[in-house]
Amino acid sequence: MYRYIGIEDLVASALIELMKRKESNRKISLQSLADYGTVIVKLLSRSGQDAILFLTKESTYEFIHDYADYFSIVEDNEIEYIELNCEVTIDELRRQFRANLTVDLAKALSESESLEALKV
Fold first, then answer.
1. What does R_g of the chain's alpha carbons equal in angstroms?
2. Residue 95: what are its φ and ψ, rounded to 5°?
3. Most buried in the list 29, 35, 37, 105, measured by CB within 10 Å?
4. For residue 101, what are the CA distances in angstroms to 5, 87, 104, 110?
5. Distance between CA 94 and CA 30 in Å, rounded?
6. CA distance between the termini of the chain
């Protein structure tokens, strides 16, 4: 059975990790998310899980639409970013997006190898 890793698994965790280091880190490029997701899949595969990264522009825009209270898409120098809305806190991200993670996925999202993909 395959485990699909999508944008909803990556965005909040990436931003939480970035903001833990510096509160003003409230956006992440779509390319950095793809890099982060690739490492997550690799880590899960190493632990014996069949994981597939499912990350498309369409799924990204649907996610932003569904969670417009939390995130928006911004462009800077022709690079697209997902930005956390200014009133949203790390604690809110944890409650909304990390509450139902499996232990294996939660570990992979915060391992040093995955954090390197975020350049933290």
1. 13
2. -65, -45
3. 37
4. 11, 24, 8, 12
5. 21
6. 32
- Tell me the average confidence (pLDDT) per consecutive run of 10 residues in the chain, 120 residues long: 89 95 94 96 93 93 96 95 96 92 92 90
Strand arrangement of the beta sheet that strand 79-84 belongs to: 27-29, 79-84, 71-76
At 68 the three-state DSSP class reads: coil
Residue 24, CB-side half-sphere exposure with 13 Å CA sphere: 0
Token match 């498309």: residue?
56
Looking at residue 119, its pLDDT comes to: 87
The one-letter amino acid code at 70 reads: Y
